[in-house]
Design goal:
Elements lengths: L1 E2 L10 E14 L2 H13 L4 H24 L4 E11 L4 E13 L1
């Protein structure tokens, strides 16, 4: 599956199939959340949260691709990601774009 952040595919004619998306809500365990809080006091990267968000992006992307494949897409264009905090220690990641088929 071809994933692009641009809204076209160079040298290809495409047919738009519609919006596809994938999302996930992730949280850290209490122990890692506590350690991240302690790290927040002294500064520096909160690698546990970085890892959590990387994993969440991968899951959201896979779910978006699965949805695109289900409608017969060859690619997803204009892929974007958004995130929001649901509650302390959790984050929602959503991946979305336009599923297209090559003509």
């Amino acid at each position: 599956m071809l994933l692009l952040t641009i809204n076209y595919i160079p040298d290809k004619e495409i047919e738009a199939l519609g919006i596809v998306k994938g999302n996930v809500v992730q949280s850290k365990n209490v122990g890692k959340d506590f350690m991240a809080g302690m790290k927040g006091l002294v500064g520096g990267e909160l690698s546990g949260y970085t890892d959590m968000l990387n994993e969440a992006r991968q899951i959201a992307t896979k779910r978006m691709v699965d949805e695109a494949e289900a409608v017969g897409a060859d690619a997803v264009i204009k892929v974007e990601y958004a995130s929001s905090a649901i509650m302390q220690g959790t984050a929602e990641i959503i991946a979305y774009g336009t599923a297209v088929k090559f003509k």
